Amino acid sequence: xxxxxxxxxxxxxxxxxxxxxxxxxxxxxxxxxxxxxxxxxxxxxxxxxxxxxxxxxxxxxxxxxxxxxxxxxxxxxxxxxxxxxxxxxxxxxxxxxxxxxxxxxxxxxxxxxxxxxxxxxxxxxxxxxxxxxxxxxxxxxxxxxxxxxxxxxxxxxxxxxxxxxxxxxxxxxxxxxxxxxxxxxxxxxxxxxxxxxxxxxxxxxxxxxxxxxxxxxxxxxxxxxxxxxxxxxxxxxxxxxxxxxxxxxxxxxxxxxxxxxxxxxxxxxxxxxxxxxxxxxxxxxxxxxxxxxxxxxxxxxxxxxxxxxxxxxxxxxxxxxxxxxxxxxxxxxx
Length: 334
What we know:
This is Bug family tripartite tricarboxylate transporter substrate binding protein. This protein is of the alpha/beta class. The protein has eleven helices and eleven strands. Strand 1, helix 2 and strand 2 form a beta-alpha-beta unit.
């Protein structure tokens, strides 16, 4: 009889310990955050993602009740920061500030990258980049129809147009490949290590075309006649560009509409209470009117806050869209 009682006590004790161990992660997750939170920007300070992140940290910190900082970790098209974050615990203290460029396209373009897009979860899409078609002032075209006709003539002469990007597999590379494919006009891709040297060469006429995000310096270069803005590619646009034609206004390019966003992502498997806390803090920060001005300063359009379910759908749709583009232009990992 005594043995049976002791056995019951042991089993009860073990069951209690098991329940406590299961509840422990939930307990700390519900108390999140208990220390500093980092927004990891996979580029040096000063870029669009960095500016957006710095516009978020103040309000996020107030909501979370903890200091939130920006941590810049550049290199390898954002993959170094992404891989490092995946090596950390899935606890929400490291939040990746990224876009489809780093998390969807880079793994398909760079054989050295081993992570998958699905290793991350989108907490909130914060802003949309303004994508545009820019050419040097000296290029004898003023709209997309003229650009296509001019590119076709140059190709027949054996001198195809060149277009720049920030690297193989970037969205800017794929947009150029897609433009070449849908128009049937061959063009030459010229990859750069970053946006600054590419824009310098575009202004100087060393390359003929850039399809990509409008940076903070682009409007000034257009205004002073150093560059021509032919059209807007993205559906979302700032009021500044309301009168600029859309690429899709050109009949042969009616479906040529692409978006590129920046958002906050965490490692897949981060506890739901932590994700919810980060989502609430980001959503509150996005309601600050100052953030819209911050985004506009780097030619970004502030996104409408989404629910977590909507964010999950946006990320899944982006993965499908960008993988389809990569497949259509036969992108190969190098």
